[in-house]
Amino acid sequence: MDELSQAAEKAIVQALALKEGEQFLLVTDKQKLEIAEALAYWAKEVGAETTTYLMAETLRPITEPTTLFRLLCVKASAMAYMLDARMEEKPFRGYMVKAGVANSRICMMPGLTRDMMERLVNIDFHELDKFGQRLVDRLSDSGDVVVENAAGTHIGFSVRGRKWKNDNGDISHKGTHGNLPAGEVFTAPVEESFNGKLAISLIDDQLGEGIMEFAKGRLVRYEGKGVEKILVHIGEDETGKMVGEFGVGTNPKARICPNMLEAEKAYGTAHFAIGDSYGLGANTSPHHYDALVKDVSIRIGGEYIVRDGEFLI
Question: Which end of the chain lies in a sparser environment, N or C, as judged by fewer CB atoms within 10 Å?
Fold first, then answer.
């Protein structure tokens, strides 16, 4: 097998753990066809009934599912989403996450490339899980968190009472939602406790540096063309301006790059999202935009667990 086939086998057999007789819905576009074909091959090998849905460019950007597509999502045992990442399609992506969690299980791979499959999916999921779980154990119910970096980030917040997720590549159980490539632990900050400034190196995909300032969980001031573009897209929807996620990257092979699917997994980085909290917090929204903060130091209860992008646990 070549490296793409090996990675596809891990995605189907280990991550999604597809089984004979399951109904697998694979949503792709023409940019991802060679990856889709590798995934479909292994789905067929394990005996799953596979349906591929090719999103035509003439229908994009797609913001709402069609009636027929909704029926496919209801009937599927497992789903994979791998459309080229586009900001305008966040509502459609959000629908798939909610439908996957409600009806089956879903693997989200927006913006995936062949290089990312070969380098970041063909890994030892067991080791990734062990480190992620150790980090979750340290962070869970830890109370106050402070994140800083030399670029000007200083944000403080509480995570008390909030559930943590270990994105370890295990998407094998009904109701689960995860990324491939995997490699982050995340939760939703207690919204009203979230105050301070983020100096970001990337927001969403390829949208560059900026500043985001928060008061009681709400974005109140910002700088940077990328943040401005996203705020124009959000418009008057206040749910899109509320903090929805705090995550820490745990994949040692991931790089800081213009693709947020990979960048947010980079070892020792932090990322924060405005918009939907994926059920981990109080905020629900059709929006969800991740912002990367690099070279971070993270303190919990006054003790460093990350200093200048290096883990201390």
Answer: N
pTM, whole model, 2 decimals? 0.88
Q: Name the residue among 90, 98, 108 with its Cα closest to residue 235.
A: 90
**Looking at 89, 120, 151, which one is the last position of a domain?**
120
Whether residue 245 sits in one domain with residue 140: yes
pLDDT in tens, 19-78: 999 999 999 999 999 999 999 999 999 999 999 999 999 999 999 999 999 999 999 999
Q: H-helix or E-strand containing 293? A: strand 288-293
228 exposure class (CB count in 10 Å sphere: 0-12, 13-18, 19+): middle
Q: Which domain holds residue 141?
A: 124-311
- In terms of domains, do 87 and 156 share one? no
What confidence tens digit (pLDDT) does each residue in 143-158 have? 799 999 999 999 999 9
* Count of domains forming the chain: 2
The encoded tokens of residue 225 equal 């063309």
